[in-house]
Predict the structure.
Amino acid sequence: MPQVVPGENEGIESTLRRFKREVSKAGIFPDMRKHRHFETPIEKRKRKALARHKQSKRKFRY
């Protein structure tokens, strides 16, 4: 979990900006979006198949 300690003369805006940067570096937002709602096994298979299809198209493109 990212942690940011504010400096003595640091404003709340810059502290919040540093915290947001640390959270984005840690990759929390994509994980949070992924777990936002329940995904049925059928939906999960479809999503993974679509990702494989996109990956293969990207792989063979020149």
Summary: The chain has a mean pLDDT of 88. The chain has one domain: 12-59. The two ends are 40 Å apart (CA to CA).
